Amino acid sequence: NTAGIVGAVSNNGVGIVGIAGNTAQIYAIKFIAVDSGSVQDVYNGIQWAIQNRLDVINVSLQSETQIALVEQGVAEAVAAGLVVTMAAGNQGLQLGSGVYVSPGAIGRDLPGAITVGSIDSANGNLSVFSNYGSYVEIAAPGATDSSLDTTVGGIYSTYKNNTHYKMMGTS
Fold it and tell me: How do residues 92-123 score in pLDDT, each as one tens digit?
């Protein structure tokens, strides 16, 4: 979802344009399959981004318990000069006061790491599904309205087989 919103190519007849137009170089670092993957795999993916001198990485995953190795990887990426964006999460919870989402929870205390929530583009209100609170530093349109129906309230992004599709979320 995020990669398509940023990097969808213009003038290709597919139907949407990313905010970076034709200037973004997107690398898909797949470190988790649908039902498998490990914390070590995520860390290794972050390390690959560091070693290949990427500018920005998006860590669109979450756990309600601390994932120390992933948080360490995010900190190492920031120390290496990368900007790291992280999903706030899609449970509609207020973060802090005992509610923790990793790795997003480290964003507020780590300059260069940014935890992103979701707002409705129709009215600028917090999306009903978006986590919020002191950990969330910025919000971007993640839905068009307060509906949880993606056919009504989703944001267009690129999709498989050169199509586009409405999706919702904080990542």
Answer: 888 876 777 888 888 878 888 999 888 887 78
Distance, CA of 137 to CA of 104 (rounded, Å) = 10
Intervals of the chain under pLDDT 70:
1-9, 11-12, 14, 18-19, 33-34, 97, 144-159, 164-165, 170-171
CB 96 within 8 A of CB 131: no
Q: Please give, one letter per residue, the 3-state secondary structure of the chain.
A: CHHHHHHCCCCCCCCCCCCCCCCCCCCCCCCCCCCCCCHHHHHHHHHHHHHCCCCEEEECCCECCCCHHHHHHHHHHHHCCCEEEEECCCCCCEEECCECCECHHHHHHCCCEEEEEEEECCCCCECCCCCEECCCCEEEEEECCCCCCHHHHCEEEEECCCEEEEECCCC
Whole-model pTM?
A: 0.81
Among 117, 140, 138, CA closest to 129: 117
pLDDT computed for residue 8 by the predictor: 64
Which amino acid is located at 47 in the chain?
Q
